[in-house]
Amino acid sequence: MQFLPNLSVITRPAQQRSLMSVARQAQDILSPEFAQDPYGNYQIMRESTPLVWHEAMQSYIISRYEDVERAFKDSVFTTDNYSWQIEPVHGRTILQMSGREHAVRRALVAPAFRGKELQKKFLPVIERNSRELIDGFRQTGSADLVSQYATRFPVNVIADMLGLDKADHDKFHGWYTAVIAFLGNLSQDPEVAAAGERTRQEFAEYMLPIIQERRAHPGDDLLSALCVAEVDGTVMSDEDIKAFCSLLLAAGGETTDKAIASVFANLLRHPDQLAAVQADRSLIPRAFAETLRFTPPVHMIMRQVAEDVPVSGGVIGKGSTVTCLIGSANRDERRYADPDHFDIFRSDLNAVNAFSAAADHLAFALGRHFCVGALLAKTEVEVGVNQLLDALPGLRLADEADPSEQGVFTRGPASVRVSFDVA
Ligand code: HEM
């Protein structure tokens, strides 16, 4: 990484500076070493280089809670970056909109994801999809909670909510994996870019006929609701709906998948906390909230600044891209006591607001683009953790299981292999 002039690290006395740079230099964010231990590197970045320019990514990087929170809330940090970062794969979506256009579009889609609508219409869908997956391994005494459960559950739920055919799961999974890879293509790999663009074409060919059919014969599903939704005389075109469904599969699949896997990885590594949750299920939201802080599924989100912005002793020039490190901000020692410690009982954990725009952690971002699906994710995690704990007594990590995390853009355990008692 190349350090910016006029930042705090540069203004230290020369002798101290050379000692610091030997002892405390973060590894390159694109290196395998960084992927191995992002948290140790984040700590160095927060301390020594809270604002840094990364040449290969052509982006500034910010890592302190205060700066990342501001980037999510202050409208000088726009989401214009999504026009090149995701429009090529989804088409134009609410992520890149602002002002009234964003407000109207959000009002069109948000009702389906609010508490009442979720409980009434979609809770049975969530419960059924979770149960179907657990039935596949509840009698076996061992399972991988990632490949046999977490990677399938949220995508099945979204497909079912939209009224799509779950038999096409492998297609959906392939598409959203390509989309997430495109979004996190920090090193600009051309093959990843081409796969993302192919996905846009394939998804359009799959979805547009279904949307037209649903307009002609509306049902009780989310896709039909999107076809008839209207706010202030605005309705969604077929292209708008297709782009939103594409966003839903990626934004709601990969994220919740990693969240569920991480809740279990964190609890299984802390058997006393797992036992507490097993005994008192009202602790599940605390376990999820602490997981979102400690090991968030999305580690970085980008923004583009509309004017010069002073940040952490430097200046981000107008038009520049900024990478906001959520994974670092959530472990900022200026904000949380003992931040590298997973503790569902921590006194600075606000589990009541953790799934609303008043959240303390930054895993769902904050401000106008705060995650539309936060309550859906919470409901999925509550249902999933409850059902798994009921179905798998004596749940423990399998011998030699290694639930270590992978990824730098999105991050979660590649596998969580467990053993349990069978009645
Ligand atoms: C634990 C699970 C989840 C995490 C960590 C997560 C994370 C995020 C983050 C960080 C953003 C903000 C992006 C930005 O500001 O640039 C976001 C926005 C969004 N999320 Fe989620 N998400 C999760 C689950 C879901 C689910 C289940 C859905 C829906 C099925 C969903 C749909 C969306 C949508 C549509 C937006 C765009 C909102 C807007 O631009 O106004 N997410 N999410």
UniProtKB/TrEMBL annotation:
The keyword Nucleotidyltransferase does not apply. The keyword Ubl conjugation does not apply. It comes from the Bacteria. Keywords: Heme, Iron, Metal-binding, Monooxygenase, Oxidoreductase. InterPro entries: Cyt_P450 (IPR001128), Cyt_P450_B (IPR002397), Cyt_P450_sf (IPR036396). It holds the Pfam family p450. GO terms for molecular function: heme binding; iron ion binding; monooxygenase activity; oxidoreductase activity, acting on paired donors, with incorporation or reduction of molecular oxygen. SUPFAM superfamilies: Cytochrome P450. Belongs to the cytochrome P450 family. This is Pulcherriminic acid synthase. It comes from Actinacidiphila rubida.
